[in-house]
Amino acid sequence: MRAKLWISFNVCGIENEEVTGCGGVLRDIEGVARALFLGPIVANDTNSTEVGVVFIALDLFLSMGWKINSSLIVEICSKMVYNWCLNKDMRPWLLQTTFSIIERKIEQVGSVVFSMADQKRNEMASTLAIAGINRGDMFKAC
């Protein structure tokens, strides 16, 4: 399947009383949701949760088999994780392995652009992440 000119994946990771959840929604150029995920995620803090969410979003996108004409835009809630995605030197040592896998997934996608999520556009991903805290397993829909 050939995706439109550009698509975006809004992602969010949430930590609440040592329980973490994640959510993400893939939208096409018209803003129509084409895929989503939510569920629990194993992480030590909010930032590592958000890194894990980027990993899951790329993995889900690749599993769909889409080919894109332009870039996949990954919109991130955390300014810290956004900076880590852009600057390898800022990444914490404990997350180096995860970022190496993320970089391999980016190569498979072809072109990925990271951006800070607009709070209004990321509302659905945040809601999915909150719901994900209470799930026993990961839910994905494409």
Automatic annotation (TrEMBL):
Species in which this protein is naturally found: Gossypium tomentosum
Domain RNase H type-1 residues, every copy: 15-129
One Pfam family, short name: RVT_3
Single GO molecular function: nucleic acid binding
Listed name of the protein: RNase H type-1 domain-containing protein
